[in-house]
Amino acid sequence: MTAVRTVLVSGASIAGPALAHWLHRYDIRATVVEKAPAPRMGGHAIDVRGAAVDVAERMGVLDSLRASVTETGRVVFVDTRGRPYADIAPTMGAGDDRSLEIVRGDLTRILHEPTVEHTEYLYDDSITALEETPEGVRVSFRRSEPRLFDLVVGADGLHSETRRLTMGPEDDHARYMGALICIGGVPDRLGLDREARLYNEPGRAAGMIRSPRFDGAKGIALLHAPDLNGIDRAPEADQKAFLLERFAGAGWECDRLLEDLTHSPDFYFDSIKQIHLDRWYRGRVVLLGDAAHCPSPMSGQGTTLAMVGAYVLALELSRHERLASALHAYETRMRPYVKANQEIADTGIGFLAPRTRLGLTARNTLLRFGGFLTRLSGLDRRVVRTAEAIDLDARPPADMAEGSDEGR
Ligand SMILES: Cc1cc2nc3c(=O)[nH]c(=O)nc-3n(C[C@H](O)[C@H](O)[C@H](O)COP(=O)(O)OP(=O)(O)OC[C@H]3O[C@@H](n4cnc5c(N)ncnc54)[C@H](O)[C@@H]3O)c2cc1C
């Protein structure tokens, strides 16, 4: 068992509470700092797949998770006049026991609630500085008094501040995938029942999803944009104007849907990015979940990676006396799994929002063959198979289990 007794986790979404659970199992004290004033509810639908289902079972939350699945039906592809021309199963592999779709806020609640008895949560606060000392990491906070921890874990998502403080600016590690995404709550003007509708034009896609677990419907817009020109970091008003302009003249219900999206109470707009780092830890600071290796929403595997990563990190801390060995073992075991799951995103984006007319025609031909060719293409099997591709309890090869304290 590692000499680590106190851990500060930044971020209380998926990876953070999951790690707090596992640290408690190994008698390690966790404090979680979250910049939001309370656990963030609502949000989009995410997927718990493969090995993450086993992690949920071992945490004792699988039944709660199953009771909260979105029950979204099929994804129906519509033409410019709203006429369906193809449909597929809701998410790749969903509907079986190894792939569960759930609203992000529901998963946060399910993971967070059982941990409040033993975990200290600091809301409306965040890390401002990290200083390595011989005794541990001295952490300064925006609101709380400075404190010393044996280990700091950055589980603060794609735009991780912990990563910036430890590894440098986001642009050094982010791989932009050439597209932007917008999601938000919208009125269900289509009268949907447990289904999603998706409309495509070359380079842009818009859709609406309805689930009994949503308050209303969710609107989604996807847009290819080779150059960002800072729009992902622009003020919200500019992002909304940009969206309306880029969807001007689009068919189907796009005018109303985009207008509704710009009035959404939980308007989310971001560039689609992956995070690729040479190392996930440095000294006494380690990254977890999207902060370490965001696979992008186009992979649909980010939640799975966050939950499995939390399990593996805590397990390796419990197995190794030297912190550097534990962190090295965590990274060594997770790397191939992360790599395979990140690769799915390339197929995902081409499938959901083909960039060219030729690509769109090819995708639609695939769809029109009633799912047969889609299955033949192997995408659905690949998504589920890749989420399974880790042995949760394996030990890293002996010659790889020794990390350096440098971690750089
Ligand atoms: C639009 C969209 C669609 C997606 N669709 C899917 C999908 O279909 N399937 C799937 O599996 N995944 C999907 N994902 C990805 C999934 O949401 C993430 O991979 C997953 O939530 C990662 O969890 P995390 O805990 O690592 O990070 P996050 O969920 O991003 O959580 C980070 C937490 O850190 C907090 N935080 C941020 N900065 C600070 C700070 N400085 N100090 C303190 N706290 C901070 C945030 O408030 C947040 O609570 C999607 C993501 C998006 C954005």
UniProtKB/TrEMBL annotation:
<feature type="domain" description="FAD-binding">
    <location>
        <begin position="6"/>
        <end position="164"/>
    </location>
</feature>
<feature type="domain" description="FAD-binding">
    <location>
        <begin position="273"/>
        <end position="341"/>
    </location>
</feature>
<dbReference type="InterPro" id="IPR051704">
    <property type="entry name" value="FAD_aromatic-hydroxylase"/>
</dbReference>
<dbReference type="GO" id="GO:0071949">
    <property type="term" value="F:FAD binding"/>
</dbReference>
<keyword id="KW-0503">Monooxygenase</keyword>
<dbReference type="InterPro" id="IPR036188">
    <property type="entry name" value="FAD/NAD-bd_sf"/>
</dbReference>
<keyword id="KW-0560">Oxidoreductase</keyword>
<protein>
    <submittedName>
        <fullName>Monooxygenase</fullName>
    </submittedName>
</protein>
<dbReference type="Pfam" id="PF01494">
    <property type="entry name" value="FAD_binding_3"/>
</dbReference>
<dbReference type="InterPro" id="IPR002938">
    <property type="entry name" value="FAD-bd"/>
</dbReference>
<dbReference type="GO" id="GO:0004497">
    <property type="term" value="F:monooxygenase activity"/>
</dbReference>
